[in-house]
Amino acid sequence: MTTSDKERVVSSIDPPRPTLAVPSERGRLAGWSEEQPLAIARDLPTVGARLDWLASAVSDAEAHVIESALLARTNDETQEHDPEEERGSPPQVPSPLSATRPGVKSRGPARRTAERVLARARGELGIKEDPPGSNRVPYSEWYGVIGPWCAMFVSWCLYQEGIPLPATTAKGFAYTPAGVAWLRRQGRWTHSAAPGNLVFFNFPGDDVDRVSHVGFIESILDDGTFVTLEGNTDRRGSRTGGQVMRRYRSRVGVVGFGAPPYDTQGGGAESPYPGHLLRKGTKDRHVRILQARLLQLGVATLQLDGEYGPDTVAAVKKFQAARGLKEDGVVGPRTWTALWDAG
Known about the structure:
The chain is α+β, with helices and mostly antiparallel strands.
């Protein structure tokens, strides 16, 4: 099975696996009818479950033939679409943040910021550990920890768009329970799924009895399946699979969701000067943008609360000192410009 074929098979569901008399050699495929496995697969509840069953019930050579037929029939029956090829165009699934579930609301600036983060994550699809099994990927190298890297992947994507989640360091978190704890403290932990949110897993039946995997929700299909963008996974949905991939997940193993602070608008792209001084006591969205930028630059670990308090004053003074500016803790046009000139 090619990498693009493997990309198609995703689910954390472990459905019953009936015994099938199937050929074991590619040369025998021509004489074997696809109807038997297709009939069984069509009885399973979701596209993800169907593909997962096929991956476990038949060989790679057989799955290459069967998956194509199953996906074609599934599209005809349900109008759901295939996952993308590993480095191809995005699948024709509902657009991120337009496929929100009932009761989930998205505001304009926050929605655009979330879409930028998801676009950043999509741009990494296909990245693999080099060498395999080493945990060496751009995200672990960037974070400075060579180890399981699903949390470092989501931290990297958010950080690059100016939405750091400083659960452990200014860059983010490498240990998934630390991310959950930070989101809870910030009031950003939820049991409602929405595109752009982080989704945290504790997979049943493995040897880790805690939250141990995280990814982004890209969209939500009509049957409730989550389309996710994940680091350190593989075609079977492993939490140590070594690749950035798009997955199709049921709610099996889902612990909850984290809502990144997209309403800060991020500090990645240069933001226009707000037109007024930011100083101790100021409370507005521009302070949140300032705090996000200081976090992104690694100047200090700050809460993104939009309140210009003592910690923000100290962080601004530290930055001003490093840039040779007047250390008054006040952000005017010169300090604001220097924040984005700093790289």
